[in-house]
């Protein structure tokens, strides 16, 4: 009985020892971590188009742009957007106009003093001649007349008045330089605000024809000249109405700001003429629109997504597989958009590259 008990104890001890060894062995073997898999991209063939999106509004066709003739600050605006104006109507005035008018009396007095001296010299000369005075006396007085005339001309010139123009007309002309007048009948499309500083190249008012419409689109100031320098007058565009998304219209750029077109440099807008006449079903004055200008388009080219292309130290490349493992492959790229990069050279269609 004792022998059987001892034999059973030995067997149990051996089994327990074996289990303990197996547990230690299992705990010593770590679970392998998964190897990171890098994304891959396939070189594809397709199209790349770069568009400029501009916001605009349908407005009367611009006929005339009005400028002040001198620099200054706008003190009064007498015609606002959508006002109907007639040729010759006063549209606005600079603060300088008031200054000129305030100095008009003083100016006229200064001029009159010089005029009186000239007239006295001339009358004295006429009197000497009528009295038959000596040639020397007459010659001296003729010189006095000449000096008085020179003084008068210098006075006029110092006051900014042409000596050959009537004084009253010259003063009125100076005041007119600080005023803006309508050069033709029409409707005000845009107008400056009171307090704005302007120069002779600043568009103060734009007059349009209410019977003809066009689109005036604002250039994206954040893009600088990057977009507008790729546009040209006569370029085709697509126009979509914000309130009627199903309406798509075709148009042509009529005018761009200088130096990219015939407009003025301060006028940062694009004028577009639509091919379709206005109607209740198409567009009308006041409609807000989105203008799409296709700046570039390459068809059936090779492309990759931007995340597949890398640039370091002036070198543009991708990572491809080779017999010896991954390696860099230099490439030349062309057009770039948010989701596509044109591959000009260095890769072939269907080739696989590795992402970062």
How would you describe this structure to a colleague?
This protein is α+β, with helices and mostly antiparallel strands and 356 residues long. Among the domains are: 66 residues, conserved putative lor/sdh protein from methanococcus maripaludis s2 fold, CATH 2.40.420; 79 residues. 27% of the residues lie in helices and 36% in strands. The strands form 4 sheets. A 6-stranded antiparallel beta barrel has the order 2-9-12-11-10-13. A 4-stranded antiparallel sheet has the order 6-5-3-8. It is elongated, with a radius of gyration of 42 Å.
Q: What's the topology here?
A:
Elements: H1 2-28, E1 40-42, E2 44-66, E3 72-77, E4 84-85, E5 90-94, H2 95-102, H3 104-130, H4 135-158, H5 167-177, E6 179-181, E7 186-191, E8 197-198, E9 205-218, E10 236-241, E11 248-255, E12 269-274, E13 288-304, E14 310-312, E15 315-320, E16 327-330, E17 332-336, E18 341-345, E19 352-354
Antiparallel strand pairs: 1-19, 2-9, 2-13, 3-5, 3-8, 4-7, 5-6, 7-9, 9-12, 10-11, 10-13, 11-12, 13-18, 14-15, 15-16, 17-18
Helix pairs in contact: 2-5, 3-4
């Amino acid at each position: 009985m004792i022998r059987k008990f001892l034999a059973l104890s030995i067997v149990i001890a051996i089994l327990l020892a074996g289990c303990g060894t197996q547990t230690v062995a299992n705990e010593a073997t770590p679970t392998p971590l998964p190897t990171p898999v890098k994304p891959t991209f396939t070189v594809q063939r397709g199209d790349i188009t770069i568009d400029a999106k501009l916001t605009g509004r349908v407005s009367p066709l611009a006929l005339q742009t009005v400028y002040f003739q001198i620099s200054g600050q706008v003190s009064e605006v007498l015609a606002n957007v959508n006002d109907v104006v007639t040729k010759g109507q006063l549209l606005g005035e600079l603060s300088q106009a008031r200054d000129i008018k305030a100095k008009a009396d003083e100016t006229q007095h200064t001029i009159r003093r010089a005029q009186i001296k000239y007239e006295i010299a001339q009358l004295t000369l006429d009197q000497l001649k009528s009295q038959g005075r000596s040639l020397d006396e007459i010659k001296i007085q003729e010189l006095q007349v000449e000096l008085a005339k020179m003084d008068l001309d210098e006075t006029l010139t110092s006051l900014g008045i042409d000596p050959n123009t009537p004084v009253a007309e010259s003063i009125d002309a100076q005041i007119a330089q600080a005023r803006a007048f309508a050069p033709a009948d029409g409707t005000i499309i845009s107008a400056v605000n009171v307090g704005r500083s302007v120069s002779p190249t600043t568009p103060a008012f734009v007059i349009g024809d209410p019977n003809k419409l066009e689109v005036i689109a604002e250039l994206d100031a954040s893009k600088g000249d990057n977009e507008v320098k790729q546009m040209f007058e006569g370029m085709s565009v697509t126009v979509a109405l914000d309130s009627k998304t199903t309406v798509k219209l075709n148009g042509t750029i009529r005018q761009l700001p200088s130096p990219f077109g015939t407009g003025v440099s301060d006028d940062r807008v694009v004028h577009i003429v639509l091919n379709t006449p206005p109607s209740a079903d198409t567009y009308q004055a006041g409609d807000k629109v989105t203008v799409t200008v296709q700046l570039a388009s390459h068809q059936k080219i090779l492309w990759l997504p931007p995340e597949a292309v890398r640039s370091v130290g002036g070198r543009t490349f991708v990572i491809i597989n080779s017999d010896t493992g991954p390696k860099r492959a230099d490439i030349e790229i062309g057009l770039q958009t948010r989701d596509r990069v044109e591959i000009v050279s260095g890769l072939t269609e269907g080739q696989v590259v590795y992402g970062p």
